[in-house]
Amino acid sequence: MQLTSALPIAKMVGSNRVVLGTGIVHVAGDANLPPDEEKALRRKLVEEALDSLRAEEGGAG
Amino acid sequence: MRIVHYLNQFFGGIGGEEQAGSPLQEVEGAVGPGRLLEQTFGEGAAVVKTLVCGDNHAVEHQEELTAAVLEHVRGAEADLFVAGPCFDAGRYGMAAGALCSAVQTELGIPAVTAMHEENPGVDLHREGLYIVNSGKNAARMKEVVGRMAGLARKLAAGEAVGLPEEEGYLTRGLIRDRFVGKSSAERLVDMVLAKVQEQPFDTEMPVTSFQPVAKPRGVDDISKAKVMLITDGGLVPKGNPDNIEGMAATRWGAYDISGDDDLAGEDYEISHGGYDPRFVQADPDRLVPLDALRQLEKEGAVGEIHGEFLSTSGLSNPLSNTRRLGREMAEKVKREGVDAVILTST
Known about the structure:
The complex is a heterodimer. Chain A is mainly alpha-helical. Chain A is built from two helices and two strands; from the N terminus they run βαβα.
């Protein structure tokens, strides 16, 4: 899967499992947040990334 | 002019799909489409050798085949290498493209092939080769061979080659300077006017098209999966040991994280000229989210994190290059039993 903030590029090249990141300069974080909140945000993004990698029930995907 | 011609088993007259496993065979003189090629060239040109190989054999043994073909072309003292036309035969196109590229780069001998624009060989080799647009229909053989001969004559003579639409080859995605009568502003207004009047016009900036990639099946149980982190954001250990270029990177690296719970800014640097690297420099987990993934691994939500993360720099890079980098990374991923990859892109 691809974690990216450049969604149009991911779509253009045909990535088929995409999670939207939090910005080009910190795709898996946010420098504006206090450290603990940033860590929680990163964990959430990684969990979403892992979710996108799971096989769909009953489907081929 | 001495020509060496490559054909698959079908056009080489060995047989159909049942002969797709046939190894490389060498025939003196022209065979099938090669006779037409000779006729089109007329006097002074001869197909001195025809190389015929089954489509499956060609794709399954590409390195061996390439080495053998290079040897034959060198031995025949060829002035020109021609492969196909391949029309929409995918394995044939992939082999023809790879062989033409190798002959051109390794031996410096001009090479020409022909394919339908959706042949997978086009996508892999269009930037480096002149590939005549053959369409799908083999009934157009004569016309296609005519165009191949015209183009080949120019290449062999070292003459300037015209634009794709003039010469009949598939666009290579290259930019070439030339003088035109109107400024870009005038041309743009002409295009807009044509568009609103529903008249035909040609864009000067065609968007690169990508073949769709089939979505692979997901992972059944992430808690047992081996997951790898990859980034195109240019994160490298201090000192950039693999000298990964900050733009148009030709290399990628694999870096050990097996003992780490967290990536520290003082151990890494960013080789990427396309974004402000200060935030990632301060905390590389913002690009390669090892801390969060390690925590999930410890909690049992993820089976195992691969002991290395892979990195390159994704900026202003020709597709031929990025495809190679991707292919090389994918080979490692497969070889090392990785079940899933998180690729972070800036």
